[in-house]
Amino acid sequence: MPVVHLVRHGQASFGADDYDVLSDLGRTQASAVGAELARRGLSNARPSCGTLRRQRDTAALALPGVQPHVDGRWDEYDHLELLKRYTAPASGPTDGSSQGVQPLLDQALAGWVADGDDGGWPAFAGGAARALASTAAELDRGQAAVVFTSGGVIAAVGAGLLGLGAEGVVALNKVAVNGAITTVIVGPSGTSLLSFNDHAHFAGSARHLMTYR
Questions:
Q1: Which CATH superfamily is domain 3-209 in?
Q2: Secondary structure of the chain: what % helix, strand, coil (to 5)?
Q3: Strands (DSSP E) along the chain, which ranges?
Q4: pTM, entire model
Q5: Which of 45, 89, 123, 213 has the most CB atoms around its CB within 10 Å?
Q6: CA nearest 63: which of 182, 134, 145, 150?
Q7: Are the beta carbons of 102 and 174 closer than 8 angstroms?
């Protein structure tokens, strides 16, 4: 049966002028993902990614010389816009760190999902589901695809397959590890989540590579 592996991009540049650039650690994570894909025999899997630079650069570092199919439906939501729209001013300032911002992002994401505006979360999650279906439809039996995308997209796919609501989306999104691999299988009975957020390649001596934001 076709298998689709969703890879979260390496660590981006939180707090920098351009967030959409891999940090030095993010580049190292991307190379480690490439080694893990090779170990799994996935170096020749059909590659795809979103349009965002951090997604495309992760793909380039993980699979050097390979040109992935680019599909904007794999792009992440705009977290800064969500913070503006769904975070109450009374929430107050943070210390500016990714850990300090995370509770506010959780609040904003939950509000966005619960809002139900047709042009918001339903469109975003629906686009991710359709991108997954399109990718799987291009695979023959036994073939695999590797998609370089983002935590929110992976949370949307996982929550959709598990039938989770806003709380589930937030719970999956907040534990997404940079460079982790989520695996989806497509069979006669439908599409199923086989594994979520697998980051065993960052265990042991590589533990210093594990980040969430």
A1: Phosphoglycerate mutase-like (3.40.50.1240)
A2: 50, 15, 35
A3: 3-8, 46-49, 69-70, 144-149, 181-187, 190-198
A4: 0.93
A5: 45
A6: 145
A7: yes
Pick from 136, 13, 123, 14: nearest CA to 72: 123
Sheet holding 3-8, edge to edge: 69-70, 46-49, 144-149, 3-8, 181-187, 190-198
Residue 92, classified by CB atoms within 10 Å of its CB into exposed (0-12), middle (13-18) or buried (19+), is exposed
Place of tokens 């959709």: 160
CA distance 70 to 55: 10
Q: What are phi and psi for residue 143, nearest 5 degrees?
A: -85, 160
Kindly give the confidence (pLDDT) of every residue in the chain, 213 residues in length, as a single tens digit, with 9 standing for 90 and above: 899 999 999 999 977 778 899 999 999 999 999 999 999 999 999 999 999 999 999 999 999 999 999 999 999 999 989 999 998 654 554 555 666 788 999 999 999 999 988 889 999 999 999 999 999 999 998 899 999 999 999 999 999 999 999 999 999 999 999 999 999 999 888 999 999 999 999 999 999 999 998
- Residue 114: count other Cβ atoms within 10 Å of its Cβ: 13
SS3 state at 75: coil
Tokens of 209: 């590579």
Task: Return the residue matching tokens 């990718």.
Answer: 135
